[in-house]
Specification:
By secondary structure, the chain is mainly α. The chain has helices at 12-32, 44-55, 65-68, 71-86, 88-98, 105-115, 123-153, 155-170, 190-205, 207-223, 227-231, 236-260, 269-286, 301-313, 326-341, 355-382, 388-399, 414-429, 431-438, and strands at residues 2-3, 102-103, 347-348, 351-352. The strands form 2 sheets. The chain has a two-stranded parallel sheet with strand order 1-2. A two-stranded antiparallel sheet has the order 3-4. A hairpin with a 2-residue loop joins strand 3 and strand 4 (351-352). The N and C termini lie far apart (61 Å). 44% of the residues are buried. The model has no long low-confidence stretch (mean pLDDT 86).
Length: 460
């Protein structure tokens, strides 16, 4: 059996965007069903908001899952989160591949766009490994979390809550079905905090980094050679991602700890450890996960500003995280340094970064921040009397697909909900995907460029 998408005459990236829209539409309708709801009468726009937040793995809610939705409804949310985290095209490709359905080149390119894997020859194996690793990580997380949840919620409730939280954490979604206070009751619980943190970090690294680390570990074990030499062969993308992730995690933890310890007294080593654990968790979750072990609205002003920055940066490409990504920040930073030093090129680990890649990073960075500021302005106008800091925080949380809130989401009017939904959708797919999906096929052909005289424009 063959799958031929060429007859649809739709660009691969547009199929990816349409797949997200389709699953959001179906999910919102399923959440409207009577057997999905414990409390009848919720409006469709609120179910749509939940579906968008689930598929865009954000976690902002106007209806609390544990209060509004039945087990069936929560299962729908969990499926939407999984589809949004991995990408519906990735899941469809895996299922069809298991059914021995052959892809034409158009279908293969569509899946390649969805997964960020450039090699078409190895795409099917790549998709299989994505699904396999996802199930392994989520399974381990579920087992660890069930140790805490089974005694608290019973066998079925504990296993289900552990599975829901593991899927949500790995997909960087920020949804929980434990109560109305997120993970605040587990603020000092080392098992829950560290398990959720590890799932968030692994999901946020991105599929390509998993594959690279898997390759390196396999080589180190099989060849039994110098481990340092093997890991020095790590590709540039993985090195940048790991370096930036560590810097942001450690930096975020230190800054949040600095501000929050001023409000909390440290009278013993236990107090120090607890504040450090809470600060680390918030640093991790701020980068697109959306869980919270403390009341965000009561945090220090300095912590909130740092969290806004971390939310906008987000995680890494081709994974479950949002934001304008760690690699974008790194390349923009290196570009600025290059201009200061008047270097001809950017060299990373003895390899030159292509000018085209740098241009893409600048486009993503500027487009992302421009949309954030425009949306924030609209929200400020549509929500008079609301502290602007709460609005800026909410907008950053939405476009970064984070899910943290200063208790504002539940108060949004319909216009503000529409803006937040657009931000979540844009943040999940990314600026380049939206631009390429909207833009038609260019009629501009190489070899016909017209060159004009240079214009003199003063800068600075």
């Amino acid at each position: 059996m063959n799958l031929n998408l060429k007859t649809l005459k739709i660009k691969p990236i547009r199929l990816v965007v349409l797949s997200f829209l389709m699953i959001i539409g179906v999910g919102s309708l399923l959440l409207c069903l009577p057997w999905s709801n414990q409390i009848p009468g919720a409006r469709y726009v609120d179910h749509l908001f939940t579906a968008v937040s689930s598929v865009c793995v954000t976690g902002l809610v106007v209806l609390y899952p544990v209060q509004q939705y039945t087990v069936f409804g929560q299962i729908i949310i969990m499926v939407l989160i999984q589809c949004g985290g991995l990408g519906i095209m990735t899941i469809i490709a895996y299922v069809l591949n298991q059914l021995k359905v052959r892809f034409d080149i158009h279908a293969t390119k569509t899946v390649s766009e969805a997964t960020g894997h450039s090699s078409l020859a190895t795409l099917h194996g790549y998709v299989k490994r994505i699904i396999r690793y996802t199930l392994i990580f989520e399974g381990i997380g579920m087992v660890l979390l069930s140790i805490r949840f089974i005694p608290e919620f019973g066998l079925f409730g504990g296993l289900f809550n552990a599975m829901f939280l593991a899927v949500s954490a790995f997909c960087n979604a920020g949804f929980d079905n434990l109560g109305l206070t997120n993970l605040i009751p587990y603020q000092y619980d080392v098992l829950v905090s560290l398990t959720v943190s590890c799932l968030i970090i692994i999901g946020g690294l991105g599929f390509p980094v998993w594959m690279e680390l898997s390759r390196l570990i396999k080589e180190a074990v099989e060849k039994k050679s110098n481990k340092r030499k093997v890991f020095n062969s790590m590709n540039s993308h993985a090195r940048i991602v790991i370096k930036m992730t560590l810097m942001l995690l450690i930096g975020g933890t230190v800054v949040i700890f600095f501000f929050e310890q001023q409000k909390l007294s440290i009278e013993s080593p236990q107090d120090f450890f607890r504040i450090l654990l809470t600060s680390f968790f918030q640093s991790v979750t701020t980068r697109t996960a959306g869980f919270s072990t403390m009341n965000i609205a009561t945090m220090h002003f300095g912590s909130l500003l740092v969290m806004i920055v971390l939310m906008l940066i987000g995680g890494s490409p081709s994974g479950t995280a949002g934001g304008f990504k760690t690699t974008t920040l790194y390349l923009v930073y290196r570009f600025v340094i290059q201009e200061y030093l008047e270097d001809e090129s950017i060299i990373v680990h003895k390899k030159e970064i292509q000018r085209r890649t740098i241009k893409k990073a600048l486009v993503v960075f500027i487009t992302f921040l421009s949309l954030y500021f425009v949306a924030s302005f609209i929200l400020v106008v549509s929500l008079p009397g609301v502290d602007p800091l709460r609005i800026y925080f909410e907008a950053a949380s939405a476009i970064g697909t984070v899910g943290l809130t200063m208790d504002l989401t539940i108060l949004l009017n319909d216009l503000a909900k529409g803006v937040i939904m657009l931000l979540m959708f844009f943040g999940r797919l990314g600026p380049l995907a939206i631009i390429f999906a909207i833009r038609g096929n260019s009629s501009h052909k190489k070899g016909t460029e017209v060159h004009y005289a240079h214009a003199n424009v003063l800068i600075g």
